[in-house]
Amino acid sequence: MYDKLSIEGYEELYGNEQRKKFEIIQKNINLKGKTLDVGCGSLISREFFDNVIGIDPCKALIKNKEDAFLGRAERLPFNDNSFDNVLCITVLQNVEDINKAISEMKRVCKKNFVFSILKRTQSFNKIVSRLNEEFEFNKEIDTEKDLILIKQVK
User: What would you report as the CA-atom Rg of the chain, rounded to the nearest whole angstrom?
Assistant: First the structure.
């Protein structure tokens, strides 16, 4: 879907909406250490958090971005426990295999997880149910368009 988008097109379509999500997330969790942004798009997360590494399946979006890798959530090219945090913002409805994606994110992350799920997606209930099976979330934030789930280890 995103392969044909340019960086400008992505910013125009999703930039402000993604920034609003990250503002909410930033107010609700202090991410320290190394963070992996799964499905990072144009790496807007770096405007809000330090030490972010991104991975996205769209080459055009990550082109010329330092510490951004081409790849998919189901096959993360990182060692076990490489990250302190994982951000996965409005991504899970686009993955091929949600179970593999969740397993991979858990494999590479030591502590904190933040997910947002687009409410209007057909698989919303399935995604939320699957995430609740895998994680005990400390916070659930219901926004106009998304549900944001936060698991923070204190």
Answer: 14
Contacts 24+ apart (CB under 8 A), 52-57: 52/87, 53/83, 56/2, 57/2, 57/3
* Cα 95 to Cα 28, 68, 83, 100, 118, distances in angstroms: 26, 18, 21, 9, 13
Would you say 48 and 26 are in contact if contact means Cβ atoms under 8 Å apart?
yes
- Domain limits at 135? 2-151
Kindly report the pTM of this predicted structure.
0.90
pLDDT in tens, 4-24: 444 455 455 566 889 999 999
93, 43 Cβ separation under 8 angstroms? no
CATH of residue 111's domain is 3.40.50.150
Nearest residue to 94 (alpha-carbon basis) of 134, 141, 38: 38
Distances (CA, A) of 144 to 47, 48, 49, 132, 154: 22, 21, 23, 21, 28
For the chain, the domain total comes to 1
